[in-house]
Amino acid sequence: MQQKLQLFCIPFKILLFLSLILIPSIVCYNILNPLNQSSVIGIGFLSQLILHKSASNSALESHCDYSYGNWASDETQPIQKYTENCPFLDPGFRCQQSGREDMDYQKWRWQPQRCNLPTFDAADFLRRIQNGRIVFAGDSIGRNQWESLICMLMQRVSNQSTVYEQYGNPITKHKGYLSIQFHEYNLSVEYYRVPFLVMTDRLPPRAPPEVRGVVRVDTLHWYSAKWVGADVLIFSAGHWWNKDKTVKMGYYFQEGGSVNVTMDVMEAFRRSLNTLKSWVMNNLEPGKSHIFFRSYSPVHYRDGEWNEGGNCDMNTRPETDYTKLEPEPLHNILISEFAKQMEIANRNVQFLNITYLTEFRKDGHPSSHREPGTPANAPQDCSHWCLPGVPDTWNELLYANLLKIGFRTKMT
């Protein structure tokens, strides 16, 4: 009987130890470290009990969210990147050639939490996408990312004269469609300027007098016919989905044959995403096309809006004050929901969330260093990005997410 009582007392003593010493210690530790995500399970052997001991670094990184982390200073970054001499850069993104003297904005590397971002391997990317098509469709921030990817890939092309615009067009923000051919890899990297993704149009009959034009939220842009068959599609939208570029300019929203002058801008954006969803379901092969919808790219106008003297030319380092970060844009909530709905429908759609990491980079804009010929009193550009620069990191995330899913064109 006494032996049985002793056996019973052993687990009782262990429980007593946990309740009186260990658990209060954990609670106290987390009160003192409320913002440390690892604090809940990061205490010595307890973390090993909760996290499976056999979990390898590669397994952890396969589930890593690359969107959250911090910017780390890295003096080697400019050496590893392309330069402004890349022939496919818009003059408005060549900040050094436009008078910016410092290069500090190029000396930062994004470090995700609890894992590492895979090194961008242009040669590997080119092999994976050989005989394929990459399509960027959206606003001019999408063109920013498109130009970045072209220059990143060109670093590993043996004969750079074999990379050219299909129709000989110069790279300019005024073109609605551009296609860069990588002849050695039978690859095209295309850009379509469609700021709303859906159609804008003239007035329908008997439109209200305040309406100057319409955004047809139920009709995708006619460029969409060219997107069919692409292997990777990167959509971007948001910068035109606001009151300043719609209702304040007399552009209202149309469904069918009627114009709705009371529809909220975000409701119109949601309906346009439903139109895109229907197009994806009806026009893209589930096993072939991989779709990314990039999140909203923050702007950093201070002391006024873009047309009210707003500026960003005094910023030379990333933001360090977390209280100055803007809240999550509503655009992102709608885009994320779109991606989730498509995943449920067994489509290869991912939400490429670059908003948080980009919010810090108030130092990366052209600001007053705009393209040659810009009037001295023109508004600063605090929405686009210098290249090389922040959009390179967006493409590193794109590449990392393609690696996660083992992407490779079927013809390679």
UniProtKB/TrEMBL annotation:
Q: Which Pfam families match?
A: PC-Esterase, PMR5N
The yes or no answer to whether the keyword Transmembrane is present is: yes
Per UniProt, the keywords (alphabetical) are: Membrane, Signal-anchor, Transmembrane, Transmembrane helix
The listed locations are: Membrane
Q: In which broad location class does this protein mainly occur, judging by the first location in its UniProt entry?
A: membrane
Cytoplasm in keyword set:
no
Question: Which residue intervals define the domain Trichome birefringence-like N-terminal in the entry?
Answer: 63-116
Q: How does it sit in the membrane?
A: Single-pass membrane protein
Any one GO CC term of the record: membrane
Highest taxon above the source species: Eukaryota
Which InterPro entries does the entry link to? Answer: TBL, TBL_C, TBL_N
Q: Where are the transmembrane segments?
A: 12-32
Q: Where is the Trichome birefringence-like C-terminal domain?
A: 117-400
Which protein family is it in? Answer: Belongs to the PC-esterase family. TBL subfamily.
Q: What is this protein called?
A: Protein trichome birefringence-like 8
Query: Per the UniProt entry, what species is this protein from, by scientific name?
Result: Abeliophyllum distichum
